[in-house]
Amino acid sequence: MKKFLLMLLLLLSFSVVLVACGDDADDTTNDAEPTGDEGEAEEPASGDPVEGGSITGAMHSAPTGLFNPIFYTETYENNILSITHESLVSQKNDLEFIPSLASDWVTNEDQTTITFTLEEGVTWHDGEPFTADDVVYTYSALADPDYIAAGGVRTVYVENLLGYEDYSSGETDEFEGVTADDDYTVTFHFAEPNVNPLYYSSFPIIPEHVFADIPVADIPSHTASLDPGEVIGTGPFAFTDMVEREQYNLTRYEDYWQGTPYLEEITWRIVDQSVMTGLLETGEIDFIADPEGVAAADYETVSGFGNVTIIEQPDFGYQIMGFKLHHRTSSDVEDGVIDPDNWEENEKISDPLVRQAIAQAINRPGFVEGLLYGRGDVINSPIAPQFWAYTDEVDQNEYDPAAAEALLDEAGYVDVTDDGFREDPNGEEWILNLDYPVGNELRERSAPIIAENLEEIGIQVNLRQPKEFTAYAEELENDNTDWDLYLIGWSLSSSDPDPSSLWGTRSAYNYSRWNNPESDELMQDALSAPDAFEQDYRADVYAEWQQLYAEDLPAVILYAQNKLYAHNDRFHGVDPLPYRFTNNTHLWWVSE
Amino acid sequence: MYKYIIRRILIFIPMLLALTIIVFALAQAAPGDPFTGQILDPNIDPEVYEMRREELGLNDPIPVQYFNWLTSILSGDLGQSIYYNGRSVLDLISQRFPNTMYLGLFALAITLTISIPIGIYSARKPYSALDYGATGFGFLGLAIPNFFFGLIAIYVFSINFGWFPSQGTITSNNLTGITALIDRLHHLVLPGITLGLAGTATYMRYMRSEVLDVLGSDYIRTAKAKGMSSNSVLYKHTLRNALIPIVTLMGFEFGALVSGAVITEQVFNFPGLGTLFLQSVMNQDYPVIMSMCLLFGVFILVGNLLADIFYCIVDPRIRYD
Questions:
Q1: What Rg value do the Cα atoms of chain B yield, rounded?
Q2: Tens of pLDDT along A88-119?
Q3: Among A495, A576, B162, B295, which residue is least crowded by beta carbons within 10 Å?
Q4: What's the predicted TM-score (pTM) here?
Q5: Which residue of A has its CA nearest to B292?
Q6: A275 vs B151: CB contact, 8 Å cut-off?
């Protein structure tokens, strides 16, 4: 145990050194904006695609080893599965859904069903034809009574389907949610009118002929989910070999339905983050992509390599400083109940003026410059900026300490005891607790700066010791404590902008315990048939919601980081999606 | 002697039991459980995790959980990892074990081949330039953190000169026979040296002071007086007696060998038990943590037992009954 502690200590000192290195690099950052437009910066320099060759990508942690779309839980698996498996529909750069395994679709009048016409001539990596039965099987497996017990977490895709309750509880053997009309036609039936049926039908399809005879409970431990050569998809490359935790080899599928891929092989190597950029420079690896990409601090170094192109695009996610507007009672925490009626208001920050003042006191542009080296943005709305639903036309809460002080004065929080700190309107001591976790270095570094910013306008902040993430997450959730301010990062879905899973009053992830009936109503409206079938209608409602959010401010959005992908210039045909590097991999090719 | 060994092995049982109780209690005392950290994906319904907890018995009282774990261990089942999606713990450990073993042995070989000759030489010529040089070098090796040395080694020998691979244990699965072996050794060089040099100072200093000590003792004077050549004095009388503390050290090393070298493994992406353990602790993967602690415990106890047995061999004066 002592040895282990020692190692931890070493690890810590390691990160300290890294931080120190980062600081040095800071001095040399210039403010001039070098290239880095979205995706399209990629214009093949040298003519037509060439057949053959291979490329190597790097990720810095290994997949846990479960290569089955319905069961994997780590993002590292997704680097492989997003190449080997396909869905009925995929998304393009503006996040609109486009045909993939399904060539066409129609919805009925009230959008309770959607019928897909499947591509014919698609085959699995083992040569079997892809049919509607595979789609039916995949969704039935997600809805299977044993699915959750076996470790599955993707029930979101089936919960809205007709007959899910009955099927998943084992009351019936017949799943009505997804049905095959013939070999190449499949229909999804929703229990209620569905605003975004394509999202629910965008799940990767697994082969029925492989899994049909395996009980769902045994799928995660079956070789067809684990072993290269036995993991079967319809994608342009098949998973053929691996040295576990070191490298994962994908070989092209000659009979791929969109045409034989140019590359012969794609290899993922697991590379320690500290040597990743070095290997990129020597050409030992060709690209660095999801999930972390290149660190913002390394931007200058990597762009100086000469043989490497960086693609910069906003990430789906942001870091927030949340306000614990309410706390749950101890008995509710005990029982795991989320009941707004029992919540206790946190009066220290219940005044929206105070929250706005805090937002305006935090130097958020400073974070983007100082912590992110300019590779990010200040945003004011909790919807991913890539979405049609995002609007920037909300209260900006710009950095303005003077305005922040004025707001606090207006709200009655003034310094009556002349100790340099403001007291609450009753003249009582007013101290805000700020809690934050370790694990994300930038976030850790932002906490003391926030405390400093707030103290500059006279708010006394009790900056707590950072907690190990699991411990932090538990306390964040079991919030019968004295927390006032907390830091957390969210990654967002790229499929639909609906913010209710994070900000709905009863949502478990609403850690602010924000209780605003108007907000709930708006989020509900944006999903209500039939008005919400029109995207413009939804956009209007979300615009209204975002303004409400910016005024009531359950959390300050600190910054949204950019994703930095880097690839060798010999690698062409790179066409990243806003949320993922791997896209149209059959069109990837290498020169030389 | 056999009685002694049997007695020692019997003592292992309550020791291991105590070890598992402590580790289990500590692991449970840490806040959260395997799912706490994961609960931050808004695309996943938190209800799902609650059902998983119930399913895995994580909501049971701690003594019940411990008892369940103990009974399954006794029936030879190490259980399933939670983080690794229900893969068997035995599978995970046995997959990493060879890597850790190769690295540990290779590093130990480097440590010994460097430190013992230098230690002996330093003792024979104490306060010579080489003695000071070796001591300085040894302590430098001890003082430089592994990750730093490892990174420097990677940048110089792998990235700049391209002599050695920097990541992983083999180039590909397709190699066979002698090429596969050479490939594996090739991958071992940098992490092996990184890990091996760090241990050099300790062994060297022990060797030096022990040899110096023995060289000053009466029986060595007698041997010299008999007219034995100094080489013969050294190899026949001195070394054997000087090895005792080295054997003790290696007894500990045996345990350290399996617990792996987290930092070195990390920097060189050398998948061994060290990183597995660290990751399991981070993810509160109880079944893996428990099994590995048990494994480490067994190895350390066995290592110490072996050291005790080796004492008899190197020093005939030591007898157990």
A1: 24
A2: 999 888 888 999 999 999 988 888 899 999 99
A3: B162
A4: 0.80
A5: A1
A6: yes
